[in-house]
Design brief:
The chain has one domain (35-116). The chain has 5 helices and no strands. It has helices at 2-9, 13-46, 50-64, 70-84, 89-109.
Length: 116
């Protein structure tokens, strides 16, 4: 009886291992796409295409936390917050660009699981 109870309460290690591997692959794939997203963010910022900067930043803000990259999400949210501020457009542009630079730095520090 104890052996049956022990078997029933023992987690499905093969299933857990499979889930862990799938999650690790998803996170690694996300990190690999960051360089492309950063390139697009830089291009949009240089062109002062604020709609695209907002779209890319919002995407990073919404998705980074799902993959465990809270610092990226926080920095991306700050870009969006700066874009939402009312006031002098020139001053806002400077702050938006500073926030984008900080976001780029956070993306550059992201590493895939098991990466160096």
């Amino acid at each position: 009886m104890q052996n049956q109870t022990q078997q029933a309460s023992t987690p499905d290690l093969a299933g857990l291992n499979s889930q862990l591997a799938a999650n690790t692959a998803r996170v690694s794939q996300y990190v690999e796409t960051l360089s492309t997203r950063v390139d697009r963010l830089v291009d949009a910022t240089m062109a002062e295409d604020w709609q695209e900067v907002r779209r890319l930043s919002d995407h990073l803000a919404r998705n980074s936390n799902n993959y465990g990259y809270e610092a990226i999400g926080e920095r991306a949210r700050r870009v969006c917050d700066e874009m939402d501020k009312p006031g002098d457009a020139e001053a806002n542009v400077l702050e938006i660009k500073r926030s984008v630079l900080r976001l780029i730095g956070a993306c550059g520090r992201a590493k895939a699981p098991g990466g160096e």
